[in-house]
Amino acid sequence: MTANDSSPHHLQLTRDGQLRHFLTLDGLDRALLTDILDTADSFIEVGERTIKKVPLLRGRTVVNLFFESSTRTRSTFELAAKRLSADVLNLDISTSATSKGESLSDTLLNLEAMASDMFVVRHSQSGAPHFIAESVTPGVAIINAGDGRHAHPTQAMLDMLTIRQHKGQFEGLKVAIVGDVLHSRVARSQIRALNELGAEEVRVIAPGTLLPKDVESLGCTVEYDMARGMKDLDVVIMLRLQKERMEGALLPSEREFYRLYGLSQQKLALAHPDCIVMHPGPINRGVEIESAVADGPQSVILNQVTNGIAIRMAVMSMAMGGQVAERQQKLSERGQA
Amino acid sequence: MSSVNTSGGSLKITGGRLFDGQGAEVENTALLIRDGRIATMGEAAIRENADETISADNCVITPGFVDLCCNLREPGNGQKGNIATETLAAAHGGYTTVCASPETSPVNDSSAVTHLIRDGAASRSQIRVLPIGAITRGLEGDLLSDMAGLASAGCVAVGNGSRGVRNARILRRCMAYAQTFGLTVMFSPENQALAADGYAHDGLVTSRLGLLGIPEVAETAAVMEMLLLAEETGVRLHLSQLSCGRSVEMLADARSRGIAVTADVAMHQLVFTEDALAGFDSRFHVRPPLRGESDRKALIAGVREGVIDAIVSQHQPHDTAAKQAPMAATEPGLSSIESVLSLGLELVEMNELALPDLIRALTSGPASVLGRTARLAEGETADICLFDPDAFWTPGSKTLVSAGRHAPVTDRELPGVIRLTLSEGRKAWPQPAI
After folding, report:
1. Whose C-alpha in A26, A135, B7, B407 is 20 to 30 A from the C-alpha of A36?
2. What value of ipTM does the predicted structure carry?
3. CATH tag, A153-304
4. CB contact B328 to A (< 8 Å)
5. B356 and B63 Cβ atoms separated by less than 8 Å
């Protein structure tokens, strides 16, 4: 028996199925994901102009609410918002209010008083953006920039964009995600996106200590042996390994991890010759990936970063569009009543 | 207990279906209550005159419910509730006896705190409050509390609330010491090292939502350890708030070997599963966590077959702020005591549990864990609950009396309305006029 119906995907769509928040890829169908990719494609061209701006969010205020520090994600969100002509405020909350004991609810009340239109939220607790989306004033869009171990939907979508650019389509693709799946919000969103977009097989390759319980239920197969797992791959996605994993007795040493699950040229040679190598960054050279592979011809790691701006522009403009459409609908309904 | 009204007077209940908490139902002709006791029943009662007569047509009459796990939040947590609000909520739920958890502030690890709770109950509660003492000092799990002193101050059992005990050596000594005085020990089985930072069942939903899991083995390993230690020390062990199907199997096996062990389960474990967390609903952040459907089914079977003696409310009222945050930052627990019967009646409606089994697990089952009785018979204390199983109500801010508003269901009607709760013959619900 379920207790309620407020699952994230109901929360993030308008009645007409338009995006109004972007919290998770759960509940978003292939058409909508494809729409995000197509929209992002159209924004890539903007990044190549001398004047890299479109007026879609002109006059809007976007607040980057980072409860957990991040350089790259925050700066690509900032660039994306600025290219959409929004005013951007960066708040690094990890070092301010909440460390003084203020609750998330109270922090939010204060920020809402600034009349912003969109919060881009990163938080170390799973479900925090969902909680904010439920409690925020109607009309304010929430974009998840990574929450705990739950989801990192813009990262997964920029990965999908990168894959599509190199492979053309998702049908028939065999994709492996290697490393610390247990702690990875990126992996959860990627598995979901690849399944929805029609990839043939998603494999996770990791030792048992770095896999969530019943991981197969997320839509993937499990392979402990990397050599076997590399066979026939079209895409291999390496995950970042945090150093503190040794302390919790999840792994014996970086050296053993690299030997078993690090991506070397030798292991890459076991995949398809045109297999692309991806990594959400920041990379640990010599821990999960060999430098020669990271910088090699099959690596598309830097394309991912470029695509990140386009995807974030797409998601921000679509969510703002959904909020505006919803408000207009409510106004016209009120007018009729 | 204060004498508010009807004390000294007599009350007659006519009609209705009567369950004495043990076996099948009987038709009630009349039941006469005088001086806080059931004076006569049946034909003899019809002929007697009474100061007040209540018709129980269409209603069920049972002994007042007994709760082995209830948090009254007093002393120390006034923002979450107090003895007056929470015992009134209990009476609204049909309860006439509640065990008060030792997890107060300060914790109930001394006779002074026990007296504070008993004095508070004597002046502000219409129902019976039985304190549970802390088995370790400060519930820290390290040092023994003054158990004999707690018992003589009025604690009916000792336990560690929802908190664990440091290690098996200390647990063994806790049991051996409690056994010396014939005290029942109540433990919520959880291996702290295995539970670690988790707050949700380590399963499908947790994997998808990226929540931190508490594996089943955190409970089952603790159950096994506690059963073996109880067997060795000979203490009377009560396992509180089971959540795993495997625990029920181990319990049944231990009983068949003659180990003196009883157990309870919280009503929400019989109704909800991990799926309740799907929308990051922190209301359902409870401990032990809601587990899978097969666990839920096994727990219900445990109640049906009598392996699990009691269903408890595990009532944990909170202030709003404690529940309004991302799940990891919220406090565990539901404000549940007013909805236990209603959720149980839904299980009856769905043929998952028979009504006599439900009533047994709310009355005579928990009473016997405490060495008490809960019966409707001539001469017994008039602790009585009268409810209409076919009437509906919607839990919400207008209907709930607990200070905690995070009831398990607030968005739809539930069956089962408590018409009358009598504690020692006095009306505890509806709320007596002051």
Report:
1. A135
2. 0.90
3. 3.40.50.1370
4. yes
5. no
